[in-house]
Design a protein that fits this description.
Number of helices: 4
Radius of gyration: 59 Å
Number of domains: 4
Strand content: 25-35%
Order of helices and strands: EEEEHEEEHEEEEEHEEEHEE
Helix content: under 10%
Structural class: mainly beta
Shape: rod-shaped
Number of strands: 17
């Protein structure tokens, strides 16, 4: 087998008479030719089914209708996009470390956050940056009728308005318009919990304005109650109800460390215990006579007596023996005293 390398110039085409093992290079078209050893037929190197090399294979273009496998490195200035398969793409992505792709390599490296209804600020933020959205002051001040839904989360919520000659209020409106009284508007309180079987927010009481009248037709039908509830075994329980006439009804006892003052006290509310406590607090000689419905007694002179009469508590009255009635039955009388005459007495 020859080991000759021929260089061919001039016209294109395969060189002639290459024996088995000989290689020729056509300088004009840059093709390699290899002698097949069969009747000196020359074959282009690119038409071989398999090419094996222990060193480097390089060229301006290497194409293959089959696979190309190497144990070393394939180096190229560019890689045809059509040659990138899912497998190759996955292998490339797997080799990219976290945080390895710099933002400058991205075709788009920012997002635009637009402030929607009742929000302000917004704008463009680059990846890795931050942006702040605020609730619009006009919405919080409620200078106009604004509508929103969902949850406002805050460490504290303060409603501030300078009102001269009026009230600063927060409105909670039940917009139902029928005449039923089975509805209310109010504020509910909750407490967070994560102990045992409990999780999330649990009942913490509520304050309700309920309808005492139909709210239909005239202002005479606009009457409400105010109800106060506390949580008892996870149930909102009514503890105090104030009706439209001002009557406050407690469902339990009323206890005060100060003074309870009232224009009147319902007689039905006076128990033996209360009456005894009141009497115990009255000092001796404290009740004036004028406070008594009856402040005197009448002493009537009976048989053989005279004078007597009505006497006010704290006063006095005298009873006398009537000697005119009992004279001749053992009694004599002078102008100064009465003495018993034993001789006339019947014993």
């Amino acid at each position: 087998m020859a080991s000759t390398i021929q260089l061919k110039t001039g016209t294109s085409g395969a060189p002639a008479n290459l024996t088995n093992g000989e290689v020729a290079i056509n300088v004009n078209d840059g093709l390699f030719y290899y002698g097949s050893g069969s009747n000196n037929v020359t074959k282009q190197l690119e038409s071989f089914t398999d090419i094996t090399a222990t060193g480097e294979i390089s060229g301006s273009q290497i194409s293959s209708s089959g696979d190309i496998s190497v144990t070393g490195t394939i180096t190229a200035a560019t890689l045809d996009a059509a040659a990138v398969s899912d497998t190759l793409a996955a292998a490339i992505v797997a080799e990219i470390d976290n945080d390895e792709i710099p933002i400058a390599k991205l075709a788009e490296d920012a997002v635009t956050v637009t402030a929607g209804t009742n929000l302000s600020n917004g704008g463009t933020v680059t990846l890795g940056g931050s942006i702040t959205l605020n609730v619009d002051d006009a919405f919080l001040k409620n200078d106009a009728d604004d509508t929103t839904s969902g949850t406002i989360t805050s460490a504290g919520l303060i409603a501030t308005k300078a009102t001269d000659g009026g009230d600063t209020i927060i409105q909670v409106i039940n917009s139902n318009t029928d005449g039923g009284t089975d509805k209310g508007a109010g504020i509910e309180f909750l407490h967070g919990s994560a102990l045992g079987a409990l999780s999330g927010n649990q009942k913490g009481g509520k304050i309700l304005s309920t309808k005492a009248s139909s709210y239909q037709g005239t202002t005479a039908a606009v009457d409400s109650n105010l109800e106060f509830y506390t949580a008892n075994n996870d149930t909102d329980t009514l503890q105090l109800k104030i009706d439209n006439l001002g009557l406050a009804a407690f469902t339990g006892d009323v206890s005060s460390s100060g003074t309870i003052t009232a224009a009147t006290l319902d007689a039905a509310a006076v128990s033996d215990t209360l009456a005894a406590a009141i009497v115990a607090e009255i000092d001796n000689d404290e009740i004036p006579i004028a406070k008594l419905a009856e402040d005197s007694v009448t002493i009537t002179a009976g048989d053989g007596l005279k004078t007597g009469g009505s006497v006010t508590l704290g006063g006095s009255v005298t009873l006398d023996i009537d000697v005119d009635v009992i004279a001749g039955v053992g009694l004599t009388a002078d102008n100064t005293n009465e003495e018993l005459d034993a001789s006339l007495a019947l014993i």
